[in-house]
Design a protein that fits this description.
Helices cover about 65% and strands about 0% of the residues. The chain has 15 helices and no strands. Helix 11 packs across helix 12. The chain is elongated, with a radius of gyration of 21 Å. The N and C termini lie far apart (about 65 Å).
Length: about 260
C-alpha cells in the first residue's frame, strides 16, 4: 500500500517536503495508488494533500474530486475548503487562488464540490478569484452555472469574506450591476460589508453617496451588519459620514440614524 512505506509514516516530515519541493512526484504517487487504498488510507492521503496546501497538492485534491463519487467525496470537499485556510506561507495565497480559479472553469465536478471551491475562493480572498466567481452568476457561458444555480451559495459565501484585497473590485462590481444584475450587486455588497478593516465600509460609503432611494434598504442592511460586527469600520463610518455628500437626502438621514445610535 502507498501509505505503508516508511516515508509516509512521518506525516509532518512529508508535509514539509511537499511544501519545500512542490512534491509533484510525491503527489503523482499518492494519486496513482489512491483507488486501491482502504477508506482509512484514502482519508490519510486527503489529509496530507490538505495540510500541505501547495499548488500541486491542491490540484491533486481537485483531480480526486473529479473521479470520486463515493462517500469519500465529502472528505475531499472538506479538504478543498480547509486547504484554503491553512495560510502557511503568504506567497501561496496567489498560487492557491490560481488553482481554485482554474477549477471554476473546469468540468467534471459535482455541485457540492463546486460549492466547496467557491467557499475556498472566498477564504483565499484574492481579487481575481472573487471577481471570476461573482461574474459567473447568471452567466449562460459558465460551465457550472448552466446546470445548477449557485447564486445563493455565492452570496452566502461572501458573508465570510475576510481579506480586504478585493475591495476595489467589489466596489466596481457594485457600481456596474446596481441596476442591471441584482444578484451580482448583492454578492459584491455582501462581501464589502463582511471584510475586516474599514476598506469595505469605505467602498460602500463612497458608492452609496451616489446611489438611489431604490437601493437604500439594501445599503442599510449592509451598514447595519458593519456597525454590529466590525468596530474599526463603525468608528470609520462615524467619523466619515458627516463629510459625505449624498444624492439621496433620505439615505443620508437613514445612515446617520443607524450609525450614530
Amino acid at each position: 500500500s502507498t501509505l505503508e512505506n516508511e516515508q509516509l509514516n512521518s506525516t509532518a516530515e512529508l508535509i514539509s517536503k511537499l511544501r519545500t519541493t512542490g512534491g509533484q512526484d510525491i503527489v503523482a504517487q499518492l494519486l496513482s495508488g489512491f483507488s486501491q487504498e482502504s477508506e482509512q488510507g484514502k482519508r490519510k492521503i486527503i489529509h496530507l494533500l490538505t495540510e500541505a496546501a501547495t499548488y500541486e497538492t491542491t490540484s491533486g485534491l481537485l483531480s480526486l474530486a473529479q473521479i470520486e463519487s463515493t462517500i469519500i467525496i465529502q472528505d475531499i470537499n472538506a479538504g478543498i475548503e480547509q486547504t484554503a485556510k491553512v495560510h502557511w506561507d503568504a506567497t501561496y495565497t496567489e498560487k492557491l487562488s490560481t488553482v481554485f480559479a482554474e477549477a471554476l472553469n473546469q468540468q467534471g465536478f459535482q455541485p457540492e464540490t463546486v460549492i466547496s471551491i467557491q467557499n475556498a475562493v472566498v477564504s483565499v480572498g484574492s481579487s481575481s478569484g472573487i471577481e471570476l466567481m461573482i461574474n459567473n452568476i447568471n452567466n449562460p457561458d459558465s460551465l457550472h452555472y448552466a446546470e445548477y444555480d449557485y447564486t445563493d451559495n455565492v452570496i452566502s459565501a461572501m458573508q465570510n469574506l475576510q481579506s480586504p484585497e478585493s475591495a476595489p473590485t467589489l466596489k466596481r462590481l457594485l457600481q456596474h450591476n446596481a441596476n442591471s444584475n441584482p444578484d451580482i450587486f448583492v454578492a459584491a455588497g455582501t462581501g464589502l460589508a463582511a471584510m475586516k478593516g474599514h476598506q469595505g465600509s469605505k467602498a460602500l460609503l463612497d458608492w452609496s453617496s451616489s446611489s438611489t432611494e431604490e437601493t437604500a434598504d439594501q445599503v442599510e442592511i449592509w451598514m447595519r451588519k458593519i456597525t454590529r460586527q466590525n468596530e474599526s469600520a463603525r468608528a470609520f463610518l462615524v467619523k466619515a459620514l458627516p463629510n459625505q455628500k449624498f444624492d439621496s437626502p433620505q439615505l443620508a438621514d437613514r445612515l446617520s440614524m443607524l450609525i450614530n445610535r
